[in-house]
Amino acid sequence: MVxxxxxxxxxxxxxxxxxxLFKALLSTPETAGALLREYLPHEVVRLLAPxxxxxxEGSFVEENLRPYYSDRLFEVKTxxxxxxxxxxxxxxxxxxxxxxxxxxxxGISAFLEQKARENEKWRQxxxxxxxxxxxxxxxxxxPNEFLALVDADEVLHPWLLNFRFPVVDLGxxxxxxxxxxxxxxxxxxxxxxxxxDLKAQMAALDRIVDALIEAPELLLPVLLYLLTTFHxxxxxxxxxxxxxxxxxxxxxxxxxxxxxxLSKDRPEWVVAVAREMLSKDRPEWVVAVAREMLSxxxxxxxxxxxxxxxxxxxxxxxAASMLLKLMRRKFGQTPxxxxxxxxxxxxELIETWGENVLFANSVDEVFAL
Length: 369
Known about the structure:
Structural class: alpha/beta
Largest sheet: 5 strands, mixed
Shape: elongated
Strand order of the largest sheet: 3-4-5-6-7
Mean pLDDT: 80
Distance between the termini: 35 Å
Order of helices and strands: EEHHHEEEHEEHHHHHHHHHHHH
Number of helices: 16
Low-confidence stretches: 1-15, 299-313
């Protein structure tokens, strides 16, 4: 279990963010090449041709294990003219797993079976090497070879199936030394702190933003990842990150977040917030809002509220309307003086009151906090 936003969530709730960032990170051949060249054994790296690796589409992780593992397979040419494949597996459990070698074996086996089916007249199969990336909070202490999983007398070891795999344990590696490649460094930094406690995450946030400035094209996937995995990250922190990395795109970027919320496939952080609202003894209006956030058929007032970040015109009027609707939902009939106060206020003040309404116990407290 992992604690997020004050509640305990099963690991399955946070698996997809790790998977999405990992795959977005390795979507460019240059970044994948940097990972391989920086973390594979030197004798293997010396064998590789200078061309970047080519992604082999598909996943070899079984559906029921995807909450815990993500994978990528790459094909690389060697200086001898042969091809070699690299099976990169990321384990995103919060603790080390002694069965990672078994999962690597299954992934490589599935790939080789696929190659054999594609060419029934094959005489030799491609060489496949594995690389394990681990971002758990506990230090990795498990042997990095398949034979460690086999119960056998030592005299039998030379005759048993075995392979070794390098393990990239992100935790002990200093942030600046995670990679010399800007894009890879920020992605690995985000993954490193995605399973850490609140104190470690907040201490690392500025360093992650500094790294993002060097790789601004990863701003959206990294931000979505941080929103899902970092404890209590709020809208103002998101805005501060955007302002530092892409200040000229703040409005467009926040609009993109609004679209993510409105999409059918809501990001896990939205679902987590809604579930947190339902997790305790809450007032009826909070329960109603939470259920509508989780509903596929959200009412028009909620769609409009979520869309207001993307509007360039009429935002003040829209914000005032949404605030009044929230107040009516929570407190019932809204007094005329409150309606007049909201209608004549500026956007910044309305947004402040919009935050206050979540914690206020009366209409008066909305404006007093």
